[in-house]
């Protein structure tokens, strides 16, 4: 299919974005027959949120994507809101004549109805190229919930049935089914626990080994929380760890403090891929790199919305706590080339090397041994005389931060400009930052994925400067690698 790709100065180079027009949440993430499928909330006739379809792209390496025709379009039952997709390996649906096939489970959204949201399914016999909506739709409805959406479905091996986790107002409900068509209510989770700043959306539920030990598996529940005008952070995502028996999710702690997945402003509605082969064994996640606070006003032209870099999720014990760790998938290493590598040079010398560079899209991996008398250190990215995005670590505040106050165009929304930080006590040994810089985003992975900050930025195309800063002392032991992406 010939598709016009609309390009402007902010068009990401190594992040997924739609060929043109509006995009929000990732949907239907499924791996099948060598392809990673990425469907997404898409308004094909405008760069604002509008009648939502499922756009579609596929990739074999998670880095380069082929745009495909729209997979699902609105119908008499409503728009096609967020949802998931699975491989029905054993043809439990009976749609595939005994063979495996793809089933998408999504929300039909019709604001004109009293039951405005219900869950429907569609299936594909040709690797996701064309879809048939099930005649008996919807398959799950509710008389109780007005906000009732974003089904994430997976096969639960222990009980040998499908499980659906669904956002219901400010909780999630679990349903189960033998065939993806008939669903039974299992339980509800969320009252009195976690953040209730706004409506719950786009849940995901999956098991991970703790510290790579397969005998110690825990379930992780991701829940995105919508935007409310009085919440300055806008929309963001929290997570819980616990146990699942196929019907009920039991959290590890009855009153967990809120744990945010990302400490930047621009990682929302993220979910993980289904059916990644066991030999691979990874849990791979991608989020929508925007925020409902200002998503409709970002200054791009002809397209709007991008995804985060795909990230591998792991569960690890760090500083006596069980935490969800995010690292860019290893496939990223295939598209980067080493540009600069230095060790232990004085800050001035490093900056002399950086001064000659004109860098637009790149990765920085830096390791420090925080010494005495240092206040903060890090990098000034995408700089020009008037612009800079500052990403680094403040020893004084024990915090990783991104400051986009002077990052370029910031005036399209009063809440865009600002500094975002996350407390991360210094490790005795060293401190590591990994920065991914694209034409309109910066992602910071601190201490090997322990703390993540994802932020959009809109620098001018001529803001190509890069420098290192260290407030307090000129020389600290460090190692820096810079790759072109
Ligand atoms: C999350 C969300 C979902 C909904 C979709 C609509 O960003 O609000 O809850 O299904 O976007 O596009």
Summarize the SSE layout with pairings.
Elements: E1 21-32, E2 35-43, E3 53-59, E4 66-72, E5 79-88, E6 101-109, E7 117-124, E8 132-133, E9 148-156, E10 161-168, E11 171-177, E12 184-189, E13 200-210, E14 213-225, E15 236-244, E16 249-251, E17 268-272, E18 284-288, E19 303-304, E20 311-318, E21 321-328, E22 337-343, H1 347-355, E23 362-368, E24 376-383, E25 389-394, E26 399-403, E27 419-423, E28 431-438, E29 441-446, E30 451-456, E31 465-471, E32 478-484
Parallel strand pairs: 1-19
Antiparallel strand pairs: 1-2, 2-3, 3-4, 5-6, 6-7, 7-8, 9-10, 10-11, 11-12, 13-14, 14-15, 15-16, 17-18, 18-20, 20-21, 22-32, 23-28, 23-32, 24-25, 24-31, 25-26, 26-27, 28-29, 29-30
The structure holds beta-D-fructofuranose.
Strand content: over 45%
Main sheet, how many strands, which sense, barrel?
6 strands, antiparallel
Give a count of the beta strands, DSSP E runs of length 2 or more. 32
Oligomer: single chain
In total, how many domains does the architecture comprise?
2
Helix content: under 10%
Strand order in the sheet with the most strands: 22-32-23-28-29-30
State the name of the first-level CATH class of the largest domain. Mainly Beta
- Rg of Cα set: 22 Å
Helix and strand content put the structural class at: mainly beta
Distance between the amino and carboxyl termini: 27 Å
Which molecules other than protein and nucleic acid are bound? beta-D-fructofuranose
Compute the number of helices. Answer: 1
Mean pLDDT: 95
- CATH fold call of the largest domain: Tachylectin-2, Chain A
How would you sum up the global shape?
Answer: globular
CATH superfamily of the largest domain: Glycosyl hydrolase domain, family 43
CATH architecture of the largest domain: 5 Propeller
Low-confidence sequence ranges: none
């Amino acid at each position: 299919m010939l598709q016009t790709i609309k390009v402007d100065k902010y068009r990401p180079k190594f992040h997924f974005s739609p060929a043109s027009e509006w995009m929000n949440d990732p949907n239907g993430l499924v791996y099948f027959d060598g392809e990673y499928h990425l469907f997404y909330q898409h308004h094909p006739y405008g760069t604002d949120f509008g009648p939502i379809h499922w756009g579609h792209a596929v990739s074999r390496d998670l880095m380069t994507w082929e745009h495909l025709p729209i997979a699902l379009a609105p119908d008499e039952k409503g728009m096609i809101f967020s949802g998931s997709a699975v491989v029905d390996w054993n043809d439990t649906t009976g749609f595939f004549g005994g063979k495996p096939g793809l089933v998408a489970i999504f929300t039909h959204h019709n604001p004109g109805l009293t039951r405005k949201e219900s869950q429907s399914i569609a299936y594909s016999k040709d690797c996701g190229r064309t879809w048939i909506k099930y005649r008996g739709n919807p398959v799950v409805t509710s008389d109780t919930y007005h906000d009732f959406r974003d089904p994430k479905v997976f096969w639960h091996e222990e009980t040998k049935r499908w499980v659906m986790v669904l956002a219901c107002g400010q909780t999630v409900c679990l349903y189960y089914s033998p065939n993806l068509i008939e669903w039974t209510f299992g339980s509800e989770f969320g009252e009195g626990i976690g953040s209730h700043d706004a409506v719950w959306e786009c849940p995901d539920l999956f098991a991970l080994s703790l510290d790579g030990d397969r005998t110690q598996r825990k379930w992780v529940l991701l829940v995105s929380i919508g935007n409310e005008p009085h919440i300055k952070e806008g929309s963001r995502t929290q997570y819980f760890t616990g146990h699942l028996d196929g019907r009920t999710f039991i959290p590890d702690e009855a009153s967990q403090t809120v744990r945010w997945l990302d400490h930047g402003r621009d990682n929302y509605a993220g979910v993980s891929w289904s059916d990644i082969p066991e030999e691979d064994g990874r849990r791979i996640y991608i989020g929508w790199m925007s925020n409902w606070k200002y998503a409709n006003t970002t200054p791009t032209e002809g397209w709007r919305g991008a995804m985060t870099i795909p990230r591998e999720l792991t569960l690890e014990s760090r500083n006596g706590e069980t935490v969800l760790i995010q690292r860019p998938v290893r496939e990223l290493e295939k598209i980067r080339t080493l540009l600069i590598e230095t060790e232990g040079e004085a800050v001035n010398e490093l900056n002399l090397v950086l001064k000659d560079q004109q860098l637009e899209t790149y990765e920085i991996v830096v390791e420090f041994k925080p010494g005495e008398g240092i206040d903060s250190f890090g990098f000034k990215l995408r700089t020009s005389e008037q612009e800079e995005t500052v990403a680094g670590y403040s020893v004084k505040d024990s915090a990783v931060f991104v400051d986009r106050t002077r990052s370029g165009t910031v005036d399209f929304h009063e809440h865009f400009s600002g500094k975002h930080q996350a407390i991360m006590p210094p490790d005795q040994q060293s401190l590591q930052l990994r920065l991914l810089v694209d034409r309109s985003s910066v992602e910071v992975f601190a201490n090997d994925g322990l703390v993540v900050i994802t932020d959009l930025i809109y620098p001018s195309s001529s803001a190509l400067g890069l420098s290192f800063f260290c407030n307090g002392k000129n020389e600290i032991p460090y190692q820096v690698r810079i790759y072109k992406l």
